């Protein structure tokens, strides 16, 4: 059996961590593409030269030529520019949509059978555009947001309750923005509702509710919290780890149930849009969207988030994409 080929489009901050994690976990041979001359070659050479110490033996190379991603099984895209001072949201959308269009055309040409995970922002628009340009089946074009947002929410719950994060399950649905929807009702520690544990901790329902509300707000703003501290750039370790979890489920056909940005055909009452929902990820990409009952408050929050996605996609279309 031959090794899988993983193409990373974008060799910046997230691309670098993706390459290292993919190598450490021996997910397959890695090729990193970037438009910056020599940079992906340098970054991957640096990672490859640690193989003896780290004990991996996959091939890891960098390129400025799309031909080298030929027949990749899995493509992970982080190409794009971050928002700069003075740049409007529309400016950023136009810039990154142009980049995504060229990336999509090249992936379509050189890796037409690949499964694609997109991380570039604004995520919901970028995933929509990639699918439109390539015409790839929707199960093979997936966005990464929910795995990270859910991991952040789980971390905050674990820290607050003083328990291992390994035992916390919490899920965030909706678009990748301020309107995302952390699902409080199902957040739990080894099956025990997190809210119940907070109530026990504080001996006070109102206080428990307030603490949970703060964790929900922190989750929604977590990307910004990291940006504010870093000052130059945005989160890169955690987005890379999250995409690698999705990649593993696909490459090893694990069928994990992960919250991902998936194309919906009526699930949760949503038709024709990419939205964060729980899905089974396996060797066919998104193999099934897992629907479950939302209460009226959750439904209203999800509708609000879907409206934000619709506005974003409409803006992108207005800008000519
Ligand atoms: N083709 C390929 N790569 C490109 C292109 C292009 N047309 N245009 C830009 N790039 C590359 C840049 O050269 C850079 O190396 O994309 C890379 C982006 O890397 P960073 O600026 O370091 O950004 P990063 O932190 O990795 O985030 C990437 O993911 O989470 C999102 O908001 C984030 O959209 C951003 C993306």
Produce a short descriptive summary.
The protein has eleven helices and twelve strands.
Account of the protein in words:
With 321 residues, the chain is an alpha/beta fold. 46% of the residues lie in helices and 21% in strands. It contains 11 helices and 12 strands. It has helices spanning 13-24, 39-48, 51-54, 89-110, 123-134, 146-161, 194-202, 205-220, 222-230, 237-251, 296-318; strands at residues 5-9, 29-33, 60-63, 74-77, 115-118, 141-143, 168-173, 181-189, 192-193, 256-265, 271-282, 285-289. A 6-stranded parallel β-sheet has the order 3-2-1-4-5-6. Helix 1 links the parallel strand 1 (5-9) and strand 2 (29-33). The longest helix is centred in the C-terminal third of the chain and has 23 residues, at 296-318. The model has no long low-confidence stretch (mean pLDDT 96). Bound molecules: adenosine-5-diphosphoribose (APR). Adenosine-5-diphosphoribose binds next to helix 1 and helix 4.
Number of helices: 11
What ligands are attached or bound here? adenosine-5-diphosphoribose
> How much helix, percentage-wise, in residues?
40-55%
**Average pLDDT level:** 96
Shape: globular
Strand and helix order = EHEHHEEHEHEHEEEHHHHEEEH
In terms of per-residue confidence, which ranges show pLDDT below 50 for 5 or more consecutive residues?
Answer: none
Q: What structural class results from the helix and strand content?
A: alpha/beta
């Amino acid at each position: 059996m031959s090794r899988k080929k993983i193409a990373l489009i974008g060799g910046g901050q997230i691309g670098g961590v993706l390459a290292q994690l993919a190598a450490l976990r021996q997910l397959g041979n890695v090729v990193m593409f970037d438009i910056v001359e020599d940079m992906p070659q340098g970054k991957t050479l640096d990672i490859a030269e640690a193989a003896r110490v780290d004990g991996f033996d996959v091939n890891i190379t960098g390129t400025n030529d799309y031909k080298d991603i030929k027949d990749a099984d899995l493509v992970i895209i982080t190409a794009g520019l971050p928002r700069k001072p003075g740049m409007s949201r529309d400016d950023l959308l136009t810039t990154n949509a142009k980049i995504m269009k060229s990336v999509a055309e090249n992936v379509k040409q050189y890796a037409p059978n690949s499964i694609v995970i997109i991380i570039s922002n604004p995520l919901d628009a970028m995933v929509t555009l990639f699918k439109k340009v390539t015409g790839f089946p929707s199960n093979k074009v997936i966005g990464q947001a929910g795995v990270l947002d859910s991991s952040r929410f789980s971390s905050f719950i674990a820290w607050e309750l003083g328990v291992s994060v390994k035992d916390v399950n919490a899920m965030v649905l909706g678009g990748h923005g301020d309107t995302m929807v952390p699902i409080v009702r199902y957040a739990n520690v080894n099956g025990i509702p997190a809210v119940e544990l907070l109530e026990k901790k504080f001996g006070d329902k109102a206080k428990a509710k307030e603490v949970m509300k703060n964790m929900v707000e922190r989750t929604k703003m977590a990307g910004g919290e990291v940006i504010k501290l870093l000052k130059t750039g945005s989160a890169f370790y955690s987005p890379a780890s999250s995409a690698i979890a999705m990649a593993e489920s696909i490459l090893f056909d694990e069928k994990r149930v992960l919250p991902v940005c998936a194309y919906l055909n009526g699930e949760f009452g949503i038709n024709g849009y990419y939205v964060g929902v729980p899905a089974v990820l396996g060797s066919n990409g998104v193999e099934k969207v897992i629907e479950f009952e939302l209460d009226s408050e959750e439904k209203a929050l999800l509708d609000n988030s879907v409206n934000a996605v619709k506005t974003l996609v409409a803006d992108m279309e207005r800008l000519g994409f």
